[in-house]
Amino acid sequence: MTIPPVLSSLLTAHGPSGYETTPAAVWRDAAAAFAASVEADVMGSSTARVAATGAGPSLAIVGHIDEIGLIVTHIEESGFLRFTGVGGWDAQVLVGQRVAVATREGVLPGVVGKKPIHLLDADDRKKVPEMKAMHIDIGAVDGEAANKLVRVGDVAVIAGDPVELQSGRVASRSMDNRLGCYVAYEAARLVAEAGGAAGEVIAVAAVQEETGFGGSTTIAHSLEPGLAIAVDVTHATDAPGIDENQLGKHHFGSGPVIERGTSLHPLISELLIEAAEAEKIPYTLAASGRHTGTDADAIYRSRGGVPTGLVSVPLRYMHSPVEVVQLDDVENTAKLLAAFALRLPADVSFER
C-alpha cells in the first residue's frame, strides 16, 4: 500500500503550531474537489462542508493540522541559533537532526548541534541532553550574517520526507496529527461520494492543538455543531517497552481506536461501535477517566456543550521525526467515520 497523494502532501508540508499556513492550503485545495464550500478562519483553521440530504444534526469531524516544531529565541554573535520547542519534545531525539528553518526569504537548511561527546565530562555523558545545551547551525560565519537570514520567532521542523517501510507501514515527522486532518478530509470525501448524510458533515483541520487547543476551541464555538468527533493519534502498543496493562491493546492492523470516557458522549461511542461492527471494520476500545489530551477536551465544553466522540489511529514513536503508522489503520478510520455519518439518524437525540 502506497501513501495516498493528499496524505503525502500533508506530511511534507511544514507547519508547527501557529504557523500552519502551508499544510492548511494543501488541505483546502484537496477538499475543494468534493466539498460544497471550503473556508478558513482568522486562527488558521479550515473547514470543508458536505451538504445534508435531510434535517439531521451537523457533524464536525475534527483533526488538528499542526505539528511540533522549534522556534528561534536568540541569535548569537557567533551566528548560532538558540531555540525552544513548539509543543512537547523529547529533547534527546533532536541531537544531530537536520532541520528546515522557515524564514521570510524561504526555507533555510540547518542542523542541530551540541557539544561533542568526546568533550563531555563522564557525569555529563550519562545525562539526557537538554534544549538549552543545543543550537541550530545554519553555516553563518557570524551573527551579522545570521541576522540577515533569520529572525527571532522563525520556526523550524525536522527535515526529511516520508519513508515507505515494509508491510504497508510509513515513517514520517508530522504524523501527529496530519493523520487526523487527513482522516477528517477523507471521511468527508467518502460521505460526499455516497451522496451525503442526513445532516451536514463538516471536516475540520484545526490549528494549535499542540500548544493549547486554540483551533478546536474557536472552531467549536463558531460552528456550533450538533455533534463532533475528534480524530487524533494514540500509542500503538506493539512496540517494545510499552505496558498494555496501562494502555490497552492497540496493535498495528487492529484498526481505529474508539475511546470511551467521562468527557465523551456515551451514545456517540456506542454508535461508532455499531458502525464498525456493521461494516466489519476492525477496532479496539480505549478508556479515559478524566481528560483525553486531545481536541475533544475543548470541543465537548463549548457553548452549552457539544456531544463529542474520539477516534484515534495507532502510532509508534509519537513526537519524534520517525513516527510510524500502518496505512490500512488510517484507511479504516476514515471508513468508520464515513459509515458513522451515513448511518446517523436524522432524529437522533443526545439528551441524557
From TrEMBL:
Keyword NADP belongs to the record: no
Gene Ontology molecular functions: aminopeptidase activity; metal ion binding
InterPro entries, sorted: Peptidase_M42 (IPR008007), Peptidase_M42_aminopept (IPR051464), Peptidase_M42_dom2 (IPR023367)
Pfam families assigned to the protein according to its UniProt record, in alphabetical order: Peptidase_M42
Gene3D superfamilies with a match to the protein in the record: Peptidase M42, domain 2, Zn peptidases
Annotated transmembrane regions: none
One biological process term in Gene Ontology: proteolysis
Keyword annotations from UniProtKB, A to Z: Aminopeptidase, Hydrolase, Metal-binding, Protease
Family: Belongs to the peptidase M42 family.
Protein name: Unannotated protein
Organism: freshwater metagenome
